[in-house]
Amino acid sequence: MGSDAKYPNTPHAQRSVRADTLEQAEPPHGAEFVPRPFSLTPAELGGLPATLASEPTSVRAWVRYPAIASQVHGLALAWTQRAVYVEWEDGGIHRAWVWAPAVERSAPSPRSTAPAPTRPSVNVMTVRETQPLVDLINARLSQIGAEFVTAMARPAGPFSAVVFGSIEDHGVRLEFFTDPSTNMCAVHLFDMNTKKVLAERATAPTFLEAITAYPWDIAMDALGPSDRIDEDRIL
């Protein structure tokens, strides 16, 4: 499963990310104690690139728990030469890295004769999609006399992106990210000079709602006066 050589006809190869950016995900259990499956560590993943599946592949995978190993029916979301990032349902959505030899392709799990519920898509954020969000943010900032000037955007894992720029000559970074286990979107503003988050992040079902909920006025107050040098004073 872990290499295209084993599955030469797969149509799913879309793009690659660092494997260690795909983190383990567990459903919320509140105060209930539920054993947590093991996921491979970054050292075990070896810094290899992971191929993201454009369409999840049905698999059976052996997942290890503290005392047992369990074979689950799930989906392969990504893979490297040695490991597979598997998602499965068991009281909620789980995601973990397992060794490639522990995974094999399978038919979709026959859970019941009733139609399976539609699997919600994850809010994947790409660099191309950041500019419309920056425009929305600038519409909010214009109300308090500020503007974010974009310098560069880059991905931050498979579901997130960051945009570097400035506000009144302050170096800042906008962060857009999603939690794949909840599909919630979040945004916040980071001061590159002080290395601090300027306000508590806003989390919402969509980036539009997260941007609307973010306290931009508080963030601008925390950013402080501009560090720009007054040229008239120098002259």
Keywords summarizing the entry:
235 residues, mainly beta, 2 domains, 5 helices, disordered N terminus, disordered C terminus
Describe the fold and architecture:
By secondary structure, this protein is mostly beta strands. It folds into 2 domains: 13-105, no CATH class; 127-223. Helix content is 15%, strand content 37%. It is built from 5 helices and 12 strands. The protein has helices at 42-45, 130-141, 207-213, 216-223, 231-234, and strands spanning 13-18, 49-64, 69-79, 83-89, 93-99, 103-105, 148-155, 161-167, 170-179, 184-191, 196-197, 202-204. The longest helix is centred in the middle third of the chain and has 12 residues, at 130-141. The radius of gyration is 22 Å and the shape is elongated. The chain starts with 12 loop residues before the first strand and ends with a helix. Mean pLDDT is 78; it is low at 2-13, 112-122 and 227-235.
Radius of gyration: 22 Å
What structural category arises from helix and sheet content? mainly beta
Supply the number of helical segments: 5
How many domains comprise the coordinates? 2
Beta-strand content bin: 35-45%
Largest sheet: 6 strands, antiparallel
- The ordered string of helix (H) and strand (E) elements is EHEEEEEHEEEEEEHHH
Secondary structure tally: strands: 12
Backbone shape: elongated
Mean pLDDT: 78
Write the layout of secondary structure elements.
Blueprint: E1 13-18, H1 42-45, E2 49-64, E3 69-79, E4 83-89, E5 93-99, E6 103-105, H2 130-141, E7 148-155, E8 161-167, E9 170-179, E10 184-191, E11 196-197, E12 202-204, H3 207-213, H4 216-223, H5 231-234
Antiparallel strand pairs: 1-2, 2-3, 2-6, 3-4, 4-5, 7-8, 8-9, 9-10, 10-11, 10-12
